[in-house]
Fold this protein.
Amino acid sequence: MAQVTLFYDADCGFCQGSVEWLLARALPGTFDPVAYQDDHGMREFPMVDRTLADKGIQALGPDGKLRTKAGATGYCLTFVPGWRWLGHLIRFPLVAPLAAVGYAIVAKNRHHISRWMGRTSCRIPPRAQG
C-alpha cells in the first residue's frame, strides 16, 4: 500500500483535528503524519519547506512528488475510502482554483476555527513506526 507522509502544524487545533480525521478513516499504514514542530522527524525530509507551516499542509507521495495546500488535501482524500470522490473533485482542473481559494480562507482563519471547535490545546502524536 502507498505511504503518504503528511506534514502539518501541530500548534493548530484545526490541523490536528484534520490529521486525526484522516487517520481514523484511512486504512492503517496509509499516512505517516509529521508535525512541522518535530525537529527529529523533519530532518528526514529536507525537501519540505518548514516556513510553509503557517500556509498549509504538505503531502509527500510514494512517487516522490510533494503536494501543498488544497492539492495536498485532495491528494490525501484520494486515499480515504468513501472520500476518494471528493479528493478527485478537488484536484479536477476546473475545480482546483476554487478549492485553492477555499483552502486559503480556511488556512487564514484556522486558529479562529480551532477555538470555535473547542480545540485550544494540541499535541504532537508519535510517528508511525515501520
Notes: The longest helix spans residues 13-25. Residues 4-116 form one domain. The chain has a mean pLDDT of 86. The chain has one domain: 4-116.
